[in-house]
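Attaching the record inline, Q. Sequence:
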Amino acid sequence: MSEVLEGREPTQEEKALTALFAEIEKGQIELLDGAAKRVIELNTGLLGVVFALTAFGNQFPPPYLQGNLFAKVGIVLTLICSLGATFFALQVVQPRDYSYNRYRLDEMRSTLADILRKKSWALRRAGFLFFCGSLALGFLIAALVLGA
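Structure, as predicted:
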């Protein structure tokens, strides 16, 4: 049995909540793009540390890496994770063409939802791989300290 509910004017709190969610929704794409750019920036720094550790000194590989299998594994894991995170972050900020009928709101809503879904998916993977790369870098530094 369906029941008809009486309508009422929203309260100030309800209006404020609706406005807040509208602002969040409006800024979602910029937020995702900004976060992806930050992951790319942080990965650049992370890769700089890895390259400094592997190419430090006048001979390659440095003496502290020779015979240290754990450090070598840490370097490879850090590189793989960092490059993977950069790849996914670039997927978020990469410009694309979207086809939709600008006179159909339902199609525009569907396209926007698809854009947000794809960007969120790629950013989650970038964040996970950045975290894994940071762990691998910690593993690498620990292997170098313990091997010294």
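The mean pLDDT is 87. The first helix runs from residue 12 to 26.

More tomorrow.
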